[in-house]
Amino acid sequence: MTDTIAAAAPLTLTARIGQLFPTLTPAQIARIAAQGRRRPIRRSEVLIEAGAEVIPFFVVVEGRIEIVQPSGTTETLVAVHGPGQFSGEIQMLSGRRALARARVSEPGEVIELDRERLLALVQTDSELSEIIMRAFILRRVELIAHGFGDVVLIGSSHCAGTLRVKEFLTRNVHPYTYIDLDRDADVQGLLDRFHVSAADVPVLICRGDVVLRNPTNQQIADCLGFNAAINETRIRDVVIVGAGPGGLAAAVYAASEGLDVLVIETNAPGGQAGSSSKIENYLGFPTGISGQALAGRAYTQAQKFGAQVIIAKSAKQLACDRKPYTIEVDDGQRVPARSVIIATGAEYRKPPLENLTQFEGAGVYYGATYMEAQLCVGDEVIVVGGGNSAGQAAVFLAQTAKRVHVLVRSGGLAESMSRYLVRRIEENPAIVLRTQTEITALEGDNHLERVRWRDNQTGNTEAHDIRHVFFMTGGVPNTRWLDGCVARDAKGFIKTGPDLSRDELTTAHWPLSRPPHLLETSLPGVFAVGDVRAGSIKRVASAVGEGSITIAFVHQVLQE
Ligand SMILES: Cc1cc2nc3c(=O)[nH]c(=O)nc-3n(C[C@H](O)[C@H](O)[C@H](O)COP(=O)(O)OP(=O)(O)OC[C@H]3O[C@@H](n4cnc5c(N)ncnc54)[C@H](O)[C@@H]3O)c2cc1C
User: Could you read off the pLDDT of 295-320 as tens digits, one per residue?
Assistant: First the structure.
């Protein structure tokens, strides 16, 4: 079989080519044919146009389909599907726009299925589900690796907006081609062609012709049609706010148990876990898994069962005075829900430092993934915080940075960090632990250039020419949008189940004779899971566990 993906990376791909482009057996084809319709295909017939919102699934019975990526008047061949092979990639599950064009290169016959029938097939036929899902996931991985896609990003590594857009696309597993103003010689031609200047970066060229200058994440999601297939006005059995591990686990269980599920996510699936370089204590991954990979798998799993995820939109308010509850999102849309799961997690506490926002993305970071690490190769960096996320970041960054200074206000790490991370920090000559030390000032112009820190034991302040600081300190719950609806503790975390006192339930006008279920808030049918919940253990496994078990209570509430 010839295809350009295979030709471009023969070594990595030869082992996987059979999984990327499997040939189905006659028995498997017959099972698909029973769900779809057979039809002839003509030479040069376009079966799917790039950018199309409706993407059917094709199994080739006879003939060939080529997958090409159009760019202006030219085309790049991406793959070829022959008899027994099938078209499609992960886009088919989410209902997003097609990334490429599918055209018949040899006439013959196909079996065609629409998206709903394909979803039903992967939910009910476990053998075909494994083959199709694996091929879809691997194809997306290859598209990303080769930058095949409908997005060109022109940016600069000195620009905070570029980092934000790269993170948004990467965490949404969307392939893109990146052109760096500072490194790519032929960038001027591209700037001229799209009538943009270096001052406009980051510039995103979307679907070949739409030019977005420093776009918001929501504008990018709109242009790429991330949410185009989602009906926000339908009353859902359960609306989950937040697509971190807790929200995604709830989505997988709810959708797999037949509930109509919608997830609303401000940024991208994965939450805090998505910003982790490697999670080593989550059951079933003895060699660890990056937060991005875990999130990508969970997101695909939720979509496979039919859960829909709205990307780049935030819940702004919960209208809790009547049922069905409605969640107002930031484009003004109101999403109705018979039950609600709050899984909005927490974010790092921002220290009260002057200039902090000026340097966010330009020397100040709140996550330590491969993308941030690339910005600090060979440099000195500071990690602020004494928890596991800070420890993980320090160990990860020490692989590529010249030196990592870990700053904590306490006298040591033993009480706040897992023993395995403390040992790795102690044994790593590139990491310097500075206890009872805190940052007092950040200095620079367009980028952070200098940091001042104070040793609280001696009272001495020192200035260091360090250009990168990772703040990983404590969590603030994302609950501001819930004002007046559910009982919270003094720090804003949501109280649930047995933690709600009689007085709190009386104040909240709890209307039922039964007490709140485990994980149910002071508002009937509204649940809270994961880091946002008062008293929760701030771990991936506990967020996933809570998200999963809450669905049992959702079923009970829906029957009340
Ligand atoms: C760098 C790092 C490393 C970590 N490493 C580990 C580890 O190795 N092992 C471990 O067990 N734990 C680890 N943790 C902790 C773990 O990631 C969290 O406990 C877990 O992610 C909590 O999951 P959650 O779903 O409750 O919330 P979160 O992961 O915080 O997800 C909440 C989601 O809700 C979204 N959201 C917030 N507000 C809104 C709104 N108004 N509308 C819509 N969406 C909203 C956010 O964008 C986010 O995606 C780490 C955390 C970090 C930051």
Answer: 999 999 999 999 999 999 999 999 99
